[in-house]
Amino acid sequence: MPMSFELIDTHAHLDFPEFADQIGSIIDRALQAGVSQIVTIGIDIKTSRKAARIAESNERIYASAGIHPHGAFNLKEQDLRDLEEIASGKKVVALGEIGLDYYHDRQPRAVQRECFKLQMETAVKIARPVIFHIRNAWEDFFQLAGEFAPSLRPSVMHCFSGDWATARRCLDMGFYLSMPGVVTFPKAESLQEVAKRAPLDRLLVETDCPFLTPVPYRGKTNEPAFVLHTARKVAECRKEPLEKVAAHTTENARTVFGIQAPIKA
Ligand SMILES: [Zn+2]
Ligand SMILES: [Zn+2]
């Protein structure tokens, strides 16, 4: 039976060991849940190359390339050349995930900032949108993003974790807010408020799988098919039909990443 809606998981980590040799069945289950396309995300040079390869061999998968703040380091020219080369690939649609994570603080903040800034420069240079990973680093983020926003393609706040005031500032900079499975958690009232108040033409949905499994699958490995539950929760928060939320978030994903709808068999 054809689905009455279509979804895109804008943030998955399909290169992770949890998914080894399972891409085919993951796509099958995604399609059964109405998820027609997936963006798989790199977190360093190696995983970005892997993401690009996965995308090249699967019609419904696209990739991003970037160095995550957890692995931030002092990038040399060669690192940036490598990144630029991967990010220029035919099915690589964004620079990311890149950003600042002052919650986990795995790398010195000054190193995170410099690594982030250099990758933003690459994004501007090759005209790709950015997928931002920002945790507890909003002021530094807004300062840096403010410098780049005028020349940056409209970009994505992945796994958005701020309150409505923060969301408003991101929207004012032209960014999209990507809703993770966290929005289904009973205690996520602040994120549910963002899901309710954000304009529908700026929302995306994502899994961030294998992490952040939504209700009702807590405890299981997350996968792209489960983005349906996130979209359903967003629809419930907005008191709008799932079909409407799905249509807009899917169109938004195609706009921001420049993705074509799949050719129907
Ligand atoms: Zn992230
Ligand atoms: Zn991620």
If you had to describe this structure to a student in words, what would you say it looks like?
This protein has helices spanning 23-32, 45-56, 77-87, 109-125, 138-148, 164-172, 189-197, 227-238, 242-257; strands at 7-12, 35-41, 61-65, 92-101, 130-135, 156-157, 176-179, 203-205. 40% of the residues lie in helices and 16% in strands. Helix 8 (227-238) packs across helix 9 (242-257). Strands 1-2-3-4-5-6-7-8 form an eight-stranded parallel sheet. It has a single domain (7-257), classed as TIM Barrel (Alpha-Beta Barrel), CATH 3.20.20. It is an alpha/beta fold and 265 residues long. The longest helix is centred in the middle third of the chain and has 17 residues, at 109-125. The mean pLDDT is 96. The protein has nine helices and eight strands. It binds zinc ion (2 copies).
**Structural Rg:** 17 Å
Helical coverage, percent range:
40-55%
Tally of individual helices: 9
Alpha-carbon distance between the two ends: 14 Å
Main beta-sheet strand count, sense and barrel state: 8 strands, parallel
Count of discrete domains? 1
- Order of SSEs, N→C? EHEHEHEHEHEHEHEHH
Structural class: alpha/beta
Uncertain runs are none
Quaternary status: single chain
State the CATH superfamily name: Metal-dependent hydrolases
CATH domain class: Alpha Beta
Proportion in β-strands: 15-25%
